[in-house]
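Q: What structure does this chain adopt?
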Amino acid sequence: MVQVQQRILVRALILTLLLPLNAPAQKFFPDDPLLREPPPVNVGKLLNRSINQYFDFFQDLFFMPDKEEVKHHTGGPSQAVNTLGEVPDNSWFTNRVGSRPMSIEELLRGPGDDHSPATDRPWTVVSGKNEGITPGLVFRDSKGRLYFLKFDPKSNPGMASAADVLGSKFYYAIGYNAPENYVVTFSRQQLVVNEKSSYRTPQGNKRAMTERDVDDVLAKTPREQDGRYRGLASFSIAGDIIGPHRYYGTRTDDPNDIVNHENRRDQRGLYVFAAWLNHTDSKSINSLDSVVEENGRRFVKHFLIDFGAILGSDSFEPKQPRRGNVYVFTWKDSAKQFFSLGA
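A:
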C-alpha cells in the first residue's frame, strides 16, 4: 500500500513539474498562422524625401549602413514573419505565385494592363526626366493620366524597354508592388509642349521646356523602320509620392514602419530574386513609397520601379559578363588584388 502511494505521489510530482513547461511551449494560437498583417495605423501628411543617386551608389559600394546589416550577413533571424516564419501580406509584399497557382493570363497582366496611354490625341509633355542613367520625358495623355517615358539605347533597340516590362511582371508575380509598364510606339507629332511644361537641366536649374528639348531627347533614341519611336511608358503610381525607401533602418515618421528594413524577410528575399533576374541596379533610388488610401486606411505602400537593368540589359548597354557574378568592390577581394598585383 505504501509503495502504491509512493508511485502515485511520484507521478503527481512529475505531472506538476511538466505542467509549467508545457504552458510557455505553446507556439500556435487559434488564428495562426497570420496570412495578413493587422490593418495599418492611419498616417497623416508625410514629407517627400529624395536620395541622391551618387550618395546612394557610393554608400552601397563602400560602406555598411549599420551593425544590423552585419547581423543579417551572419545569419540573424528574419523579422516581419508569422509563426511559421512566412511573410504575411503587408504593404511591402503580397503572396502570389509562391502561395497559389497563377494563370498565364494573370502572369501576363502583371500589375495591370488597363491604363495603356491613349493615342487619340497628342501627349502633353509635362517635363523632362533627368533621374536615372537614361534620359526621358514625363507626359499626360488625353485622359490626363501621367506617364514616365524612357527609351532604349541606340545600339540596342528594344532591349531596356522589354526588360522593364518583363521586370514589372516578374516582380509583381513574386509578390512585390510594381508599376504598370507599357511598350509604346509613336511619331514625333504625338508629343507636344505647352506653356506649363518645365525642364530641369542636369545642373539642377529649372526653366520652361521647349520643343528643342524634346528633339534633343529623341535624337538619342533609336527609330523603327517607319520612322516612329519606341519607348517604355510607366504609368504613374497612385497616391501621394514621398520618395524612395532605404534598405536599412526605418522611416521614423511612419508609425507602421517598425521593423528595420534589413531584417525584413520580404526585403532579404530580394537578394535571391535580384540574383535570379540579374537585377544589378536594385538600389534605393529604384524604389518608391506612396501614401495610399485603401479600405478606409491611409498608409505607406512600398514599390519597386525601374527594371531596365535585369536579364541581359544594363539599361544603356548590354550587360557585361562580370555583372551579376562579382561585386563591383569589396575590401577583402580588392586588397588581395592590390597586394598581389592582380595575380
